[in-house]
Amino acid sequence: MTEPHAAEPPDASRPVRRFDAIIVGAGFSGLYQLHLLRDRLGLSVRVLEAAEGIGGTWYWNRYPGARCDSESYYYSYSFSRELEEEWDWSERYPEHGEIRRYLDHVADRFDLRRDIQLGTRVAGAAYDEAANRWTVTTEGGERFEARFLITAVGCLSSANVPAISGLERFAGAWYHTGRWPHEGVDFSGKRVGLIGTGSTGIQAAPVIAAQAAHLTVFQRTANYSVPARNGPMDDEFKAWVRENSSELRAKARAAPNGHPFDFSDRSAFDVSPQEREAIYEAAWERGGLRFRAAFRDIMLDKDANETASAFIREKIRSIVADPTTAEALTPRDHLFATKRPPIDTHYFETFNRPNVTLVDLKATPIAAIVPEGVRTADATYPLDVIVFATGFDALTGPLLALDIRGRDGLALKDVWAAGPTSYLGLQVPGFPNLFTMTGPGSPSVLTNMPVAIEQHAEWIADCLAFLRERGLDRIEAKPDAAEFWGAEVNRAASATLLPMASSSWYLGANVPGKPRVFMPYAGGMAHYRGICDRIAADGYEGFVMR
Description:
This protein has 546 residues and is an alpha/beta fold. It has 16 helices and 20 strands. A hairpin with a 4-residue loop joins β5 and β6. GO terms for molecular function: flavin adenine dinucleotide binding; N,N-dimethylaniline monooxygenase activity; NADP binding.
């Protein structure tokens, strides 16, 4: 697994490189922000990217079965009709390699590479109030200065490897899904242990099981999952998407979750039990995240959600042959979609294979990793390979890793010691001219990410244009605005069932010691966009400019 190297001290003999804006990260967010600032506003911009290639989270996430859970025709940029016309997706849900090829195409088409510096990991960023500039230092000892600093580091890019005693003594190989070797891993003839059954583990398990001699799945929390029903994109569907592109993009922008499909206006209790069952069955057969849209109150009313949860629990029992295994795979400690809702390809069916074993860690927790494998409270499982599908230090982790220090050396890690605070998920008081794309306090991970990314990139570009037109060069969120927004984030979350899943990474529950705070904004993407637009129209209410 690739780990950050120790940072070299800044090299005073090397010249400081100065730009109007520094962007950290070259994934979906960084590429589009670069395009807007450089090609629309004419600013000098440098993108610093730790990886040796572009792609952001998709550069690192190459594990078996890795693919997007938004459908390909709208998991893409909408700012260029020509780009949409010339790119063909091959599958309903794009796999990681196809997404990287798409982003490579975007970088080449818009000549973005010349302003992207790869293999450059940021070690620190400090704001100088007298100069009104950010100084960014890298692990290689380089220094950059810019008026504006924009983090485009993604929400799911800081790999979370659990601190299990004995890992360093394991005699086999171990990998984290978020830092997968580019050459791949050959599981043939191997005894593999997979730790974690969130979205990643659910994608990886069937693929690993098909290759390994034996797969042992160590499950911390049983999870709901709906079939993806992935398959090739046929020419007829591609033609329909092209003909209806404008309408589909408009629908995605107007939707609460950034997906171009309608939510039902019916309650789960507006129909008879028999009709409700038929609606769920049709949604199950169609597959994908649209299952949540079967009724309007699935995410709002506990009893309504229970009808969906019970349907999926029964599906698990009907698919998994062994009743004990089926029961262990059946989630009972949270409701459907209150954690990130996975979609899968034959996940539950995988446990019918003779070479797959499920270990329920709630019943028998991991005691230690030993040289020969994993030891739980009641057994030792011999393994050649361990795969950690344990997710990320989501939303805050990638930002705190940059060691950002604002006015008077104020450290972001100290400001966020009790949980993240921000205004709109875009700025933090005490950190002038710092913009956090898809940061905590914005819809981000609760949406189809490209929609959220485009909205933030365009809002930031418009804001910088506003400053320039008025001869201003500094913007900072007010403390009372951040306090107001924190209350709004909590209000929006409390209006849904989302905070009820105590083990959710939306709350930071997957990282020991992380404050338990609901981090994304659950008020809906379209509603959030309207708030941001109103604030901009009112002269950027809640911000101090000068």
